[in-house]
Design brief:
Uridine Diphospho-n-acetylenolpyruvylglucosamine Reductase, domain 3, 5-stranded antiparallel beta sheet, 19 strands, binds adenosine-5'-diphosphate, 9-stranded antiparallel beta sheet, Vanillyl-alcohol Oxidase, Chain A, domain 3, about 475 residues
């Protein structure tokens, strides 16, 4: 999945600790020899750097290989305690195996990754528990100097509320360990969702690209009011064509963006029909509760002229709609990755800005992405992922990883989007290793005050600068001259 020449993010060795004590031993060793180490849980951070370290030559700590135990699932509190190697699939299967049909897990678009890794990188899923960071409770962390701490109630010996009350007493330190290089998380508590009595996926299609602003304005009050109950997706028609797994060349042989009339003609052959945007959502609860919400949603979406609700009964079982249906019900899936086939040797990198749920912001961000798509001649799929009071625009750029010029164009398009977005006040929620310095540089209010604070913490907690230097743009002072990529 490398967008830069492979040697730039190359590890010198990989180690597989089996316990917190072994992680401590490695940390002590790294301090003794001043070797940078880089922890991963399972390294499935696709689009953001995968299993690679930020600094070339780092020793990667692959925690997931041997620290992969589900330490606890509590069927009464609806919580679990996990090691870094527990994937969404493993957690889902264990919940099923134990017969806990009253509980759901939450999974991101790709279920193959680690629950701990995704939560620490603040990934999202698609049930009402989709904000993984908000749903976690309690961490065990090995600090860069080798001590172990437990956060929240975990600091109180004998406490039985580590997974039910995240805050404990005193400063709430958990945030310091997400998207950070201040510690290695060896255990994470997670809350689980009560399985609703019933649930039902729905899909709407919209005919014109210009409908975007109106759709987003409709979504905002419905989402904040919890009529739209899950982190929902508004996707481009091109992405829906691509997730069939067929390459672009099946549809269009020319260069540049696939023409609108081709997209429309191809969509017309699918259950979605001729359209530009597709909304995927799910309603939860018994029929009479769902009906009120679904009727409201229908009335609101149909205010967009040409909006159509696609009856799920008409959608074949192999259609992508059913993949979204599984994910919104907490069942892991991998179908999403099929859009990598859009180009030969397809790999991908994402531009992921955050904005208010407003039509004008959606339009402004789409203009930025379209501009850089056309400038660099790259293939992109924009999808608006609506949280509660903000939305992430996830722009996946798919490129031929064996073509140096395609990799360069993909990276240049990302850099252009990040810069232009920042000029308009938009920042990314997460980014690829290659873009971390650039993105961190955009969060520069008051003469980089936040970064200066992070750097002070970094130097205090990690005096030798051995833990994931450069992660999220935070460099220890020992690396000040070592900013390899800017
Ligand atoms: P996933 O397999 O779920 O995609 P990764 O293991 O790739 O997750 O983790 C994503 C990123 O989060 C990693 O690149 C790393 O920077 C950070 N990370 C993952 N696991 C840990 C951990 N246990 N402790 C500290 N940071 C971690």
């Amino acid at each position: 999945m490398s967008v830069v020449p492979k040697h730039e993010f190359m590890a010198s060795a990989i180690v597989y600790p089996a316990s917190t004590a072994e992680v401590q031993t490695i940390v002590v060793w790294a301090n003794k020899h001043t070797i940078p180490i880089f922890p991963i849980s399972m390294g499935r951070n696709l689009g953001y750097g995968g299993a690679a370290p930020r600094v070339r030559g780092s020793v990667v700590l692959d925690l997931g290989r041997r620290m992969n135990k589900i330490l606890d699932i509590d069927p009464e509190d609806y919580t679990c305690l996990l090691e870094p190697g527990v994937s969404c699939y493993a957690l889902y299967e264990e919940v099923q195996r134990r017969g806990y049909t009253h509980m759901w897990i939450d999974t991101p678009d790709l279920g193959g990754g680690s629950v701990v890794g995704n939560t620490l990188d603040r990934g999202v899923g698609y049930t009402p528990y989709g904000d993984h960071w908000a749903a976690h409770s309690g961490l065990e962390v090995v600090l860069p100097t080798g001590e172990v701490i437990r956060t929240g109630m975990g600091a109180l010996p004998g406490s039985n509320t580590w997974q039910t009350f995240p805050y404990g007493f005193g400063p709430y330190s958990d945030g310091l360990f997400s998207q950070s290089n201040f510690g290695i998380v060896t255990k994470l508590g997670m809350t689980l969702m009560p399985a609703p009595p019933d649930h039902e996926s729905f899909m709407y299609t919209f005919e014109r690209e210009d409908d975007l602003a109106q759709i987003i304005e409709i979504i905002r009050p419905l989402r904040i009011g919890n009529i739209l109950e899950n982190v929902a997706q508004l996707r481009s028609a091109v992405q829906t064509l691509a997730v069939s797994g067929r390459p672009k060349s099946d549809f269009y042989k020319g260069s540049g963006r696939i023409p609108k009339d081709v997209v429309e003609a191809e969509c017309a052959k699918l259950p979605i029909g001729k359209c530009e945007w597709i909304y995927y959502g799910m309603s939860y609860g018994p029929k009479h509760i769902r009906q009120y919400k679904l009727d409201t949603i229908d009335t609101e979406f149909k205010k967009v002229s040409g909006a159509r609700r696609i009856d799920p009964a008409t959608i074949p079982k192999d259609n992508y709609f059913w993949s979204r249906d599984k994910i919104a019900a907490g069942e892991p899936d991998l179908e999403e990755l099929l859009w990598c086939n859009w180009v030969l040797n397809g790999s991908h990198i994402a531009f992921s800005p955050v904005s208010p749920i407003r039509g004008k912001d959606a339009t402004a961000l789409l203009e930025i992405t379209n501009k850089h798509q056309d400038r660099q001649g790259v293939e992109i799929f924009p999808a608006f992922v609506v949280g509660l009071r903000e939305m992430h625009l996830i722009v996946e750029c798919v490129f031929d990883k064996h073509s140096p010029s395609a990799c360069e164009a993909a990276l240049a398009s990302m850099r252009g989007m990040v810069d232009d977005a920042a000029k308009s006040g938009y920042g990314e929620y997460r980014t690829h290793l290659a873009l971390m310095d650039q993105v961190a540089g955009t969060y520069n209010w008051n003469d980089n005050a936040l970064m200066k604070f992070h750097e002070r913490l970094k130097d205090a907690l990690d005096p030798n600068g051995i833990l994931a230097p450069g992660k999220s743009g935070v460099w220890p002072s020992s690396f000040a001259a070592g900013r390899l990529l800017s």
